[in-house]
Amino acid sequence: MKDIIQKISENKLPIFIVILISGFLLRLLLILSQNQPPHYEFPVGMDEVNYLELSENILKFKTFGAWSENFFTRSTRSPVYPAVLSVLNFFLGYSERLPQILNLFIDTLNIILIYQISLLLFGVPAGLFSSAFYAFYAPAFMYLPFVTSDILSVFLFLIISLAISTINKFDCKIIFFIIIYAIAVHIKPVLLLVAPFANFAIYLIFKKHSEKNAFLKSAHILFAIYVLCFPWAMRNYCIHRSFVPVCTVAGWHLYDSAKTAEELNPQILMRYIYSPDKTQHTESDYFDEGMKELRQKILENPAEKIYKGFLRILYFWLPEKPWIRIFLPYAYVQPIYFGKSFFLPMPDFEGFLYALFIFIVVMA
After folding, report:
1. pLDDT above 90: percentage of residues in the chain
2. What is the DSSP secondary structure assignment for residue 278, as one 8-state letter?
3. Beta-strand (E) ranges in the chain?
4. Number of helices (H) and strands (E), helices first, in the chain?
5. Distance of CA 308 to the CA centre of its chain
6. Exposure of 58 in the CB half-sphere (CA atoms within 13 A)
7. How far is Cα 182 from Cα 212, in angstroms, rounded to an integer?
8. Which of 258, 275, 250, 192 minimizes the C-alpha distance to 75?
9. Is residue 244 within 8 Å of 236, Cβ to Cβ?
């Protein structure tokens, strides 16, 4: 075992280059084999519709707004991803392939970032394994053809993780971390709730390195992040006369998930939006109603909501009935189609867990 790890460590760069090139070529092949994504006037997913229309409206009309569910929305989506698309369209010209190319290069950088983070924290074998994990990870390929913010949000999350991994004192890296985190919040607003936990991790790092006034300095970091988020929240307040930190779409989802996590699905959301008693609702009305409903449900039974939230997290990390699925082929792989008929059976998360378990048993 030690000899294998030593040989891997000695040849880490060639192995990683092979992993990186393989991941890039597979992603390139997937994009080239896909049909061009249609313009927003055609029936594609609602997320893509909004993002494409928002990016065009920023350039054409100098406004952040798009039609969604039969009314003109100005805060339903987070602003960074449409802004990135509009900047690229401004400098490179409009192309239906541009979002896919952006996803391709960002996701390739994600492989590099995962390698660097794992190498820094756990060493060469972990760096190579984790980068290979992501390079051939089936769900990562699913988002490449689509005009959504998911791959960009993973990229920023990895940069945040790398920044936290390299921070050891209160210096210029902190400024970089604050700016990147504030940008990430305006892609995935849930990071507003995660910020105190990230800040606590930085506080522990300061304490470990005997940084003076560790608690006060970490509090300044959290405060600075929220200050950078204030302008967009103020813009939303001027429009809606309601406190909307980033986007109003959170209210819709919170309204559904506040009842039961199992009932969170598009059909319930559509019934809620198109309910006859909501014909005069604006996007901020939906948001306020959703937040109010969530607060009421949490106060009624906080222990139940915490328990269900915990179960929802476990659902995405634990294999479903592993004592049965371990003997089924579809528990290990997920077909990724390159064109209409050709596909590759790429491993999913559960498949990696099983493979890692088998590897540990064999090596032991």
Report:
1. 33
2. G
3. 66-68, 71-73, 333-337, 343-347
4. 17, 4
5. 21
6. 19
7. 25
8. 250
9. yes
Q: How far apart are CA 129 and CA 119, in angstroms?
A: 10
For strands 343-347 and 333-337, give the pairing.
antiparallel
Instruction: Give the pLDDT score at 17.
Output: 92
Question: 143 CB contacts (<8 Å, ≥6 apart)?
Answer: 103, 150, 151
Dist CA 252 CA 257 (whole Å)? 9
Q: What is the DSSP string of 75-103?
A: SSS-SHHHHHHHHHHHHH---TTHHHHHH
- State how far the alpha carbon of 109 is from the alpha carbons of 21, 106, 116, 155, 286, in Å: 11, 5, 11, 8, 37
pLDDT, position 260: 47
Paired residues of 335 in beta bridges: 345
Q: Which residue has the tokens 């189609």?
A: 337
Q: Which amino acid is at 349?
A: F
Q: Identify whether the C-beta of residue 50 lies closer than 8 Å to the C-beta of residue 68.
A: yes
127: its two tokens: 């760096």
d(CA 143, CA 284): 29
How far is it, in rounded angstroms, from Cα 209 to Cα 222?
A: 19
66 φ, ψ (degrees, to nearest 5): -155, 155
Round to whole Å and give the CA distance between 218 and 232: 23
131 and 155 Cβ atoms separated by less than 8 Å: no
Give the dihedral sign, CA 37/38/39/42. Answer: negative
CA dist., res. 302 & res. 310, Å (int)? 12
Per-position b or e across 98-132, b if 16+ CB within 10 A of its CB: bbbebbbebbbbbbebbbbbbbeeeebeebbbbbb
AA letter at 264: L
Q: Which residue has the tokens 């929305």?
A: 73
Residue with tokens 């999350």: 157
Rounded CA-CA distance 328/333 in Å is 10
Q: At what angle do helices 12-33 and 98-122 cross, to 10 degrees?
A: 160
What residues of the chain score a pLDDT lower than 50? 1, 37-44, 251, 255-261
- pTM confidence score: 0.84
